[in-house]
Amino acid sequence: MRNRLAVIGAVIVFVMVIAAIIGPMLVPYGFDEMHTDDRLQAPNSKYWLGTDGFGRDTLSRLLFAARVSLTVSVLATFVAMIIGVLLGAVAGFWGGWIDDGIMRLIDIMLAFPYMVLAIIIVSVIGPGFQNLVWVLGIIRVPQFARITRSSVLSLREAEFVIAARAIGQAPYRILFRHILPNCLTPIIVYASLSAATAITAESGLSFLGLGIQPPMSSWGTMISDGMRYMMRAPWLTTFPGIAISLTVLGYNALGDGLRDALDPFSIK
């Protein structure tokens, strides 16, 4: 609570999540409901954020897109965290050829810019909600694996681990009960930052037509659809752009606050 920026970030994320959950239930129009007589209406009392080229309410689409984009970011971060933490923990704890094999695979993945790697994978398996979650999760696995491996290596020879070995505890029990719980601080912090990256990556892929497909919408698809009306109806790209920027800002500020709060060496 002493970190005001972190509080602001938490509030932004909380508001976005609440808006995504209950917002589509409160708006008077469906996200795909067309009003052909009201195409490209500027923001007014009837359509608070205007309408698009098909007469669809921008506010309704923005709130529905928030649900899609936030869900993709959370699920992708969860996938990346589970796979990356397991790979990093195994590599750091057992070492040897297991460590070498896993980390060389991680190095190969890191050799590609993450958006280029995402485009390549999506081009192979195809776009769509589920595929997008897996793609965005896979491209963030290397970072989680490296963070976890580094933490495990620093704790592998700690006294409490040596004591656990001395009393005959099984290796998997030592790893999952004693070592991994002490590695959670950097993992939790990076998960918050990774969710922000997933938001931008999802928006970028959807903007290119490789992410969320119609009739579903995301902030990226809304910007892509509004590009053709940029001069005539700038609100079609402005509002989803603001939503992306605020959400990424909120996640990053929250991550910085979590880092300070969970750091045992920080000055409180």
- Helix and strand sequence: HHHHHHHHHHH
Strand content: under 5%
- Unreliable residue runs: none
Which class do the helix and strand fractions yield?
mainly alpha
Give the second-level CATH assignment, the architecture.
Orthogonal Bundle
Can you identify the CATH class?
Mainly Alpha
Instruction: Determine the fraction of residues in helical runs and give it as a percent range.
Output: over 70%
Question: What can you see in these coordinates?
Answer:
This protein is 71% helix and 0% strand. It is mostly helical and 268 residues long. The chain has a single domain, classed as MetI-like (MetI-like fold, Orthogonal Bundle). The protein starts with a helix and ends in a 6-residue tail after the last helix.
Short description:
By secondary structure, the chain is an all-alpha fold. It is built from 11 helices and no strands. It has a single domain, classed as Orthogonal Bundle (MetI-like fold), CATH 1.10.3720.10.
Which secondary structure elements does this structure contain, and how are they paired or packed?
Blueprint: H1 4-26, H2 58-94, H3 96-110, H4 114-125, H5 129-139, H6 141-155, H7 159-166, H8 171-179, H9 184-207, H10 219-226, H11 235-262
Helix pairs in contact: 1-2, 1-11, 2-3, 2-5, 2-6, 2-9, 3-6, 4-5, 6-9, 7-8, 9-10, 9-11, 10-11
